[in-house]
Design brief:
Length: 301
């Protein structure tokens, strides 16, 4: 997919689907533009101007055909949690439910396979398998590239007995693009955080003071503020639960007070990664964070 941006109120502007069989062979493909009913966002990246999108169908007009291609399938995408969130929100706006029940992230799969990639960009995965990109940031060509790179990944997983990192896709049953009413320092609307996609889960307040930033080579310490960005091999909520149980403060946003950012894609342009770079916040990947969780230093008595 191409979108108007990365935020929760951004919209899909083009979508492509390559359907594969169990061996990763292409069955068919499909592509459509989508009128986002708003500014198209970073035209310099995706090349889709307002003029191009003006005559395109609205998402609700293509929702049924899109759903027919997703129904009963595993959603495979590069940074799959982002694609799933965008799809779920678009279907909720259309007062429908996306028929996806499982997703697989090719970033997580490449890590499971131990592929020697310099970073987690799609172009690096493609280059590793000799797949030629023709039009980067064009939904149809990106889907083709991913399909061609997924086939050998799938074969390697089967040959090596590697378990595919499948995650449940929880449907979003309600949505509003209206700003959420403020309730103290928290925002909630319709049972969801802000206008977000995840069910609200109240966690107990961290009882320990923030001891500051994590320092490489040292232990995490109870009270440290930890933020997460991007897709993870372990379900995000389980990671957050483990962090909370270890005495860490799980932060939904990143600020100068954040002790550590956990992400499997430090080269991405997400707002948390950008802010972490600006603030000098330490960044570790999921595997390193998992090791650190095994030996968290107690808070000062």
């Amino acid at each position: 997919m191409e979108t108007t941006g990365l935020a929760r109120d951004d919209r899909i502007i083009s979508a492509a689907v390559y359907r594969l069989d169990a061996r990763g062979e292409v069955e068919d493909h499909w592509y459509t533009l989508v009128n986002p009913e708003r500014d198209p966002g970073p035209v310099w990246i995706h090349g889709l101007t307002s003029d191009v999108l003006q005559g395109a169908p609205l998402f609700r007009d293509i929702a049924e055909e899109f759903a027919a291609r997703l129904d009963g399938r595993v959603l495979v995408a590069h940074n799959a949690v982002f694609d799933w969130q965008m799809i779920a929100r678009e279907y909720a706006r259309a007062e429908r439910e996306a028929p996806v029940r499982q997703r697989l992230c090719t970033i997580a799969l490449s890590k499971e396979l131990g592929l020697p990639l310099p970073n987690h960009k799609l172009e690096s995965l493609a280059a590793h398998f000799g797949v030629v990109q023709k039009r980067a940031h064009h939904a149809l060509d990106d889907a083709r590239v991913l399909a061609e790179a997924f086939r050998p990944s799938l074969a390697a997983a089967a040959a090596g007995g590697v378990r595919l990192p499948l995650h449940e896709c929880r449907p979003l049953t309600e949505w509003s693009d209206r700003p959420a009413p403020r309730i103290g320092r928290q925002a909630a609307y319709g049972g969801y955080r802000g206008n977000g996609w995840r069910p609200s889960r109240k966690r107990p307040a961290c009882p320990y003071p923030n001891p500051g930033r994590y320092e490489e080579g040292k232990r995490l310490k109870q009270g440290m503020r930890v933020a997460f960005s991007g897709d993870t091999s372990v379900e995000r909520e389980l990671l957050e639960d483990r962090a909370t149980e270890a005495g860490l403060h799980v932060a939904s946003s990143l600020s100068r007070l954040t002790s550590l950012l956990v992400t499997n894609d430090p080269d991405s342009g997400t707002s948390k990664v950008v802010k972490a770079r600006q603030f000098g916040t330490p960044i570790v990947d999921e595997a390193a964070f998992g090791q650190l969780l095994g030996d968290v230093e107690p808070a000062d008595g």
